[in-house]
C-alpha cells in the first residue's frame, strides 16, 4: 500500500549511497574506534627504517594503532602531499617531508601543527631545526635524518691508476675542489675508460650546497642569474665534462645505475643515505671504500622531517609519536635498520653509531666518518620556495652540455631563459 | 505514529488518522507529493549516471575553467582574478609549443602503427587457428601489465649506454642510438611502450567486430577467387568502419593525454634535459605540481580539452572518408 512514497524513498536512498560512496573515499580514515583505540596514520617515502619502531610503540602504548603508508619515491609522496594539502583533507596524521620542500611548506605553516616544546629543545643540530622554524618561531617539523657528505671511491681502481687507496691517505689527497679535479685528471690519464665522478649534476649540487646564498637571497629573491659563484660552479663543471672527468650521465637514470656494475666511474659525493644506494647498485662489486673528507669543507645533501598536519584528528597523539620517533634512541635504531644518519646531537656520539662499521665499504667506520662530516657542516645552503625550480633548471642546463646538445655558453643562456619563466 | 495510507491509483487517502488539528494541510501536502512522484521519479531513476557525470565530469571541467582565470597557488589557494592572463602566459611559453609538438609526434608514432597492426592481428586471429582462445587471450597480456612496470622495463631496454637494444644494434654493426637524448629516438622509444601496451587491446575489439561480419561474404569472395589479402582490404576493413572510428577517437583522446610512459622515461620527469619528450600533460603536471601554479596548469588543461575536441572531429571526418572510399557503398 505504501509503494508510491517508498519508490521515491528508494531512489533518494540510492542517490544518498552514491553520494556517500563518492565522499567517503576522500575522508580521513583515522578515527577513534568505539573501544577507544586511536589509529594514527604515518606517511613516509623510500626507507625511514620505522617498521620495527612502530611495533615497539604500539606495545608501549596500548590503545594506539599505527597505519604505515609508504610511498616508493619522494616525488610520488610529494605529489600526494601537495594535492591533499591543497584539497584540505586526506593527509595522514604524520607526514614526512624532504628538506628541499621545506621552504614552500613553511609558507603554508598554518597547515601544520606547531611542534615546538621545551622537551625537544636542543635535540637537533642547530641548522636542522632552524630550517623548519618559521620566522615567528613556530616549529613545523621534527628532524629525522641528515645527509653529511663524504667521498666514496673505488680503492681497486685507485690502485690501478697508481693513486693511494688507503682511506686515510685518500682523505689527504683532496681537501679542495681544485685538488679533487687535479687528482681526477691524473686518474683519467691512467684509466681513460673510467670517469672520475658519477655525474656532473651530483658534483654541481655538492658545490652549490657550499654557497650559503646561491640561488636565492635571504629575502627569497631569485639571484641565480647574477650570482658569480653559481656561474663559477657552472663553468667549472661543464668544462670538466668536456675534459672527460664526468660520465655524462644523470643520477638515478638506468645508465647511471648500470655504471656501478661497469667500472663507469671511480668516485662520488656520498651523503649518508647514499651508502645504501651504492651497496644496492654495486652489489657484487668489490673495492668500494669511503674517505673522511669532502672537498671544499663540509656539505649536507638531503634529510627529512616529520610533520603533523592540522588536518589530523589526533594532533596530540600524533605529535607524541613524532617526538618519540625522532628521539635519539629511536633514530639510532633507524640508523641500524636502514642507515639513515641521525640529526640529533646526542645520537651523534652514541657508541652504536660511532662504533658501527660497514662491511661493504671495506669495513670502514662509517658511523664515525659521517659523524665527523656532520660536524664539518658549518651552515646549510639557503633554500627558498623557488629553490627546487631553479635547481632543476640548473641541473638540466649542465645535462645539456654533457649530452652535447648545447655548448656551455648556450646552456647558460638557456638557463637564464628558464629563470625568466620562474616567477 | 501517524502514517498516511493512500489508494495507489488515485493518490487519495483511504484511511487516515482522525482529522484533527493540521490534518487538512497534511492531506494537501500528501497529494502534492504524489503528483511530484509521478512527474519526477522517472528522472530520479535515470539520474545516477547524470549525477555521477556532473560530479566527476562537468563539475571538474567548470571548476578548472574557474581556476584558470585566477592566480591560484597549489598550496596557497585562490588569488586574484586575472582573466585570460594564464592562457596568454601558456601560449607565449615556448615549452608549451614544444610539448604540443612532442605530443603530436608521439601520438602519430603510436596511434598509426598501433591501429594498422591491431587490425592485421585481429584478421589473423579470426582465421582457423589451433588453440585460438589461447592466442586471443595472450595478446591481451601486455595490457594487464601496469604502465609503471612497462616504463621501468622499457627504460632499461632503451638505456643509452648499457641498454639491451643498443647492445643488439652494436652487435649487428649499427651505431648506438641515444634514446634519451635525441628527440626522434626518444619519441620512438616511448611510442614503442604505448604500442606494446595497447595493440593487443585494440586487436581484441577489432576481432569482436570482425566476428559480426557474415561469413557468406567471405565464402562468396573465395568462390570469386579473391585472395585473403584482397578480402581483408575490400571486405573486412570497410565493414569495420564504425569500430575503426571508435578506436581512432579513443586512441586520439588517450594519445593526446599520454603521461605515464614519458613521465617515467627519466627520473626528473620533465621530459629530458631539453624537454625532448615533454608532453602536454607533463607540462601541465610541471606547472601545477612542481611550479605549484595551479591557475596556469588549469588553463593548459582547458587548452588540451579544446585541442582534443578539434582532433577528435578532424579524425572523425577523415576516418569517415577513408572508410567510405574503396568500400561497398
UniProtKB/TrEMBL annotation, chain A:
<feature type="signal peptide">
    <location>
        <begin position="1"/>
        <end position="31"/>
    </location>
</feature>
<protein>
    <submittedName>
        <fullName>Cellobiose transport system substrate-binding protein</fullName>
    </submittedName>
</protein>
<keyword id="KW-0732">Signal</keyword>
<dbReference type="InterPro" id="IPR006059">
    <property type="entry name" value="SBP"/>
</dbReference>
<dbReference type="InterPro" id="IPR050490">
    <property type="entry name" value="Bact_solute-bd_prot1"/>
</dbReference>
<dbReference type="Pfam" id="PF13416">
    <property type="entry name" value="SBP_bac_8"/>
</dbReference>
TrEMBL record, chain B:
<keyword id="KW-0472">Membrane</keyword>
<keyword id="KW-1003">Cell membrane</keyword>
<feature type="transmembrane region" description="Helical">
    <location>
        <begin position="239"/>
        <end position="260"/>
    </location>
</feature>
<protein>
    <submittedName>
        <fullName>Cellobiose transport system permease protein</fullName>
    </submittedName>
</protein>
<feature type="transmembrane region" description="Helical">
    <location>
        <begin position="300"/>
        <end position="323"/>
    </location>
</feature>
<feature type="transmembrane region" description="Helical">
    <location>
        <begin position="104"/>
        <end position="125"/>
    </location>
</feature>
<keyword id="KW-1133">Transmembrane helix</keyword>
<comment type="similarity">
    <text>Belongs to the binding-protein-dependent transport system permease family.</text>
</comment>
<keyword id="KW-0813">Transport</keyword>
<keyword id="KW-0812">Transmembrane</keyword>
<feature type="transmembrane region" description="Helical">
    <location>
        <begin position="43"/>
        <end position="66"/>
    </location>
</feature>
<dbReference type="Pfam" id="PF00528">
    <property type="entry name" value="BPD_transp_1"/>
</dbReference>
<dbReference type="InterPro" id="IPR035906">
    <property type="entry name" value="MetI-like_sf"/>
</dbReference>
<dbReference type="GO" id="GO:0055085">
    <property type="term" value="P:transmembrane transport"/>
</dbReference>
<dbReference type="InterPro" id="IPR000515">
    <property type="entry name" value="MetI-like"/>
</dbReference>
<dbReference type="InterPro" id="IPR051393">
    <property type="entry name" value="ABC_transporter_permease"/>
</dbReference>
<feature type="region of interest" description="Disordered">
    <location>
        <begin position="1"/>
        <end position="24"/>
    </location>
</feature>
<dbReference type="GO" id="GO:0005886">
    <property type="term" value="C:plasma membrane"/>
</dbReference>
<feature type="transmembrane region" description="Helical">
    <location>
        <begin position="137"/>
        <end position="158"/>
    </location>
</feature>
<feature type="transmembrane region" description="Helical">
    <location>
        <begin position="198"/>
        <end position="218"/>
    </location>
</feature>
<feature type="domain" description="ABC transmembrane type-1">
    <location>
        <begin position="100"/>
        <end position="315"/>
    </location>
</feature>
Amino acid at each position: 500500500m505504501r509503494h508510491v512514497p517508498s519508490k521515491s524513498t528508494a531512489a533518494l536512498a540510492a542517490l544518498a549511497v552514491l553520494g556517500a560512496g563518492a565522499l567517503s573515499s576522500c575522508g580521513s580514515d583515522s578515527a577513534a574506534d568505539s573501544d577507544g583505540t586511536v589509529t594514527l596514520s604515518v606517511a613516509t617515502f623510500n626507507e625511514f627504517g620505522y617498521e620495527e619502531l612502530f611495533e615497539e610503540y604500539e606495545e608501549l602504548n596500548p590503545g594506539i594503532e599505527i597505519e604505515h603508508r609508504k610511498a616508493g619515491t619522494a616525488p610520488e609522496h610529494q605529489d600526494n602531499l601537495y594535492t591533499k594539502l591543497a584539497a584540505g583533507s586526506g593527509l595522514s596524521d604524520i607526514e614526512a617531508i624532504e628538506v628541499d620542500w621545506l621552504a614552500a611548506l613553511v609558507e603554508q605553516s598554518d597547515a601544520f601543527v606547531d611542534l615546538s616544546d621545551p622537551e625537544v629543545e636542543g635535540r637537533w643540530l642547530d641548522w636542522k631545526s632552524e630550517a623548519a622554524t618559521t620566522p615567528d618561531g613556530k616549529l613545523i617539523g621534527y628532524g629525522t635524518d641528515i645527509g653529511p657528505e663524504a667521498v666514496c671511491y673505488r680503492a681497486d681502481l685507485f690502485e690501478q691508476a697508481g693513486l693511494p687507496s688507503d682511506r686515510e691517505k685518500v682523505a689527504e689527497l683532496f681537501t679542495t675542489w681544485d685538488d679533487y679535479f687535479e687528482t681526477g685528471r691524473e686518474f683519467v690519464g691512467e684509466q681513460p675508460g673510467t670517469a672520475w665522478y658519477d655525474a656532473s649534476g651530483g658534483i654541481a649540487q655538492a658545490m652549490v650546497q657550499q654557497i650559503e646564498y646561491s640561488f636565492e637571497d635571504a629575502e627569497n629573491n631569485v639571484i641565480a642569474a647574477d650570482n658569480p659563484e653559481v656561474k663559477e660552479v657552472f663553468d667549472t663543471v661543464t668544462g670538466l665534462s668536456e675534459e672527460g672527468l664526468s660520465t655524462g650521465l644523470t643520477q638515478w637514470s638506468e645508465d647511471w645505475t648500470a655504471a656501478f656494475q661497469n667500472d663507469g666511474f671511480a668516485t662520488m659525493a656520498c651523503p649518508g643515505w647514499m651508502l645504501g644506494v651504492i651497496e644496492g647498485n654495486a652489489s657484487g662489486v668489490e673495492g668500494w671504500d669511503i674517505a673522511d673528507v669532502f672537498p671544499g669543507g663540509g656539505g649536507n645533501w638531503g634529510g627529512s622531517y616529520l610533520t603533523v598536519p592540522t588536518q589530523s584528528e589526533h594532533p596530540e597523539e600524533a605529535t607524541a609519536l613524532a617526538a618519540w620517533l625522532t628521539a635519539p634512541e629511536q633514530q639510532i635504531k633507524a640508523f641500524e635498520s636502514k642507515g639513515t644518519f641521525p640529526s640529533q646531537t646526542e645520537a651523534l656520539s652514541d657508541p652504536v653509531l660511532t662504533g658501527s662499521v660497514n662491511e661493504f665499504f671495506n669495513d670502514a667506520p662509517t658511523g664515525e666518518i659521517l659523524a665527523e662530516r656532520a660536524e664539518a657542516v658549518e651552515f646549510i645552503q639557503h633554500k627558498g620556495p623557488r629553490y627546487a625550480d631553479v635547481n632543476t633548471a640548473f641541473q638540466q642546463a649542465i645535462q645539456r652540455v654533457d649530452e652535447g646538445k648545447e655548448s656551455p655558453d648556450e646552456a647558460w643562456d638557456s638557463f637564464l631563459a628558464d629563470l625568466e619563466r620562474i616567477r | 505514529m501517524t502514517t498516511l495510507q493512500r489508494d495507489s491509483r488515485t493518490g487519495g487517502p483511504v484511511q487516515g488518522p482522525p482529522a484533527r488539528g493540521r490534518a487538512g494541510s497534511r492531506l494537501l501536502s500528501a497529494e502534492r507529493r504524489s503528483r511530484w512522484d509521478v512527474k519526477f521519479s522517472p528522472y530520479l531513476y535515470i539520474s545516477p549516471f547524470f549525477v555521477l557525470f556532473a560530479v566527476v565530469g562537468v563539475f571538474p571541467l567548470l571548476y578548472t575553467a574557474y581556476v584558470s582565470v585566477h592566480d591560484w597557488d597549489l598550496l596557497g589557494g585562490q588569488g586574484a582574478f586575472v582573466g585570460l592572463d594564464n592562457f596568454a602566459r601558456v601560449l607565449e611559453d615556448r615549452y608549451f609549443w614544444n610539448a604540443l609538438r612532442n605530443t603530436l609526434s608521439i601520438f602519430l608514432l603510436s596511434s598509426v602503427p598501433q591501429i594498422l597492426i591491431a587490425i592485421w592481428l585481429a584478421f589473423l586471429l579470426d582465421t582457423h587457428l589451433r588453440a585460438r582462445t589461447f592466442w586471443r587471450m595472450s595478446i591481451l597480456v601486455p595490457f594487464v601489465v601496469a604502465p609503471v612496470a612497462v616504463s621501468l622495463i622499457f627504460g632499461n631496454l632503451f638505456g643509452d649506454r648499457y641498454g639491451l637494444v643498443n647492445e643488439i644494434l652494436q652487435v649487428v654493426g649499427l651505431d648506438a642510438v641515444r634514446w634519451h637524448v635525441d628527440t626522434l629516438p626518444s619519441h620512438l622509444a616511448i611510442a614503442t611502450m604505448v604500442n606494446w601496451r595497447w595493440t593487443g587491446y585494440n586487436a581484441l575489439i577489432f576481432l569482436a567486430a570482425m566476428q559480426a561480419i557474415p561469413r557468406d561474404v567471405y565464402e562468396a569472395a573465395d568462390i570469386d577467387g579473391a585472395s585473403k589479402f584482397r578480402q581483408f582490404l575490400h571486405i573486412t576493413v570497410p565493414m569495420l568502419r564504425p569500430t575503426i572510428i571508435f578506436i581512432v577517437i579513443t586512441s586520439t583522446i588517450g594519445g593526446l593525454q599520454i603521461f605515464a610512459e614519458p613521465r617515467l622515461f627519466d627520473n626528473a620527469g620533465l621530459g629530458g634535459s631539453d624537454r625532448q619528450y615533454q608532453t602536454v600533460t607533463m607540462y601541465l603536471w610541471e606547472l601545477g605540481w612542481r611550479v605549484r601554479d595551479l591557475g596556469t596548469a588549469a588553463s593548459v588543461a582547458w587548452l588540451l580539452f579544446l585541442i582534443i575536441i578539434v582532433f577528435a572531429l578532424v579524425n572523425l571526418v577523415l576516418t569517415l572518408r577513408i572508410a567510405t572510399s574503396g568500400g561497398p557503398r
